[in-house]
Backbone:
């Protein structure tokens, strides 16, 4: 049995993307977690966790997203070995850009490689989604699907599980702005309405359909017009100080659209790389928070290809 260490980069993802609550997801290039692992005789050990927010991440393998996802892969593959894991967080927890999703996807992908890649990509997603369910209190795969598969993903159905991935337009740039406020997914799901009106349903289906068409055809203008959410972001806006103001400054500095990332607090802005470099958007959001005595970290990034061995 080889005990060689291997390293996986598991990227941030943005989910929901307007009208696709728990359905749409997009892999980003940055930031990302690094999950390292090697085979051991038996069991799962987490020997190191470092990086932003790591002090609050459980080292108990039964409570940690990385190890829960890895254990599920070992179980499905009937593996006769265990794994020692080191976690280097690049994505702060409670960010809204899939921090726990990256951990879960990275753990599942790591174990998948150590098992000799016996599972299908969809099975790897399901192992990661199992960990999300245990740690975040809801079975949603809209972060782990793009994190494993890359690109823009759509979950057609959870029961039975079916996920489709497409390659987003090359020119689609992404600015991630993370204000200094923590929003836990559980807390952010607790404020959501349990029923929606037919009027909002019609609005969401129209925008969701057109967003998929625009992603497939590379119509950036239509992407900008189709990222709309009449239900979930309005319910969550109170959890993120200056959300509307940040979206407005992003729009006035060249964004195609600016919206709440996943369950928040990150603010995601799409821009056209052929005419902008994203800096004005990032700087304007940072300045807005600074004027209000709040810090805000930003990344100017693009769409990514998901987990990879580095
Ligand atoms: N779709 C999930 C939500 C993503 O919005 O609650 C959590 O990051």
Residues:
């Amino acid at each position: 049995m080889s005990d060689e260490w291997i390293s996986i980069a598991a990227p941030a993802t943005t989910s929901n993307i307007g009208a696709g609550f728990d359905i749409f997801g997009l892999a980003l290039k940055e930031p990302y977690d690094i999950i390292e692992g090697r085979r051991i005789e038996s069991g799962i050990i987490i020997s190191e966790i470092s990086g932003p927010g790591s002090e609050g991440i459980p080292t108990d393998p039964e409570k940690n997203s990385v190890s829960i996802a890895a254990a599920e892969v070992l179980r499905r593959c009937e593996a006769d070995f265990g794994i020692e894991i080191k976690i280097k967080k690049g994505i702060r927890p409670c960010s809204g850009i899939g921090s726990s999703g990256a951990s879960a996807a990275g753990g599942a992908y790591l174990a998948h490689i150590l098992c000799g890649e016996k599972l299908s990509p969809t099975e790897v997603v399901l192992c990661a989604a199992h960990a999300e369910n245990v740690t975040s209190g809801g079975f949603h795969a809209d972060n782990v699907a793009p994190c494993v598969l890359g690109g823009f993903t759509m979950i057609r159905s959870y029961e039975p599980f079916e996920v489709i991935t497409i390659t987003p337009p090359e020119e689609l740039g992404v600015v991630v702005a993370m204000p200094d406020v923590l929003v836990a997914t559980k807390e952010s799901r607790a404020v959501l309405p349990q029923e929606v009106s037919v009027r909002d349903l019609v609005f969401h289906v129209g925008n969701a359909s057109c967003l998929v068409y625009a992603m497939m055809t590379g119509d950036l203008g239509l992407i900008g017009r189709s990222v709309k959410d009449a239900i979930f972001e309005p319910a969550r806006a109170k959890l993120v100080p200056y959300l509307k103001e940040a979206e407005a400054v992003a729009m006035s500095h060249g964004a195609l659209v600016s919206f709440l990332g996943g369950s928040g607090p990150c603010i995601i802005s799409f821009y056209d790389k052929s005419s902008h470099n994203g800096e004005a958007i990032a700087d304007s959001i940072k300045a807005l928070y600074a004027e209000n005595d709040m810090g805000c970290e930003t990344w100017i990034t693009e769409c990514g290809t998901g987990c990879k061995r580095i």
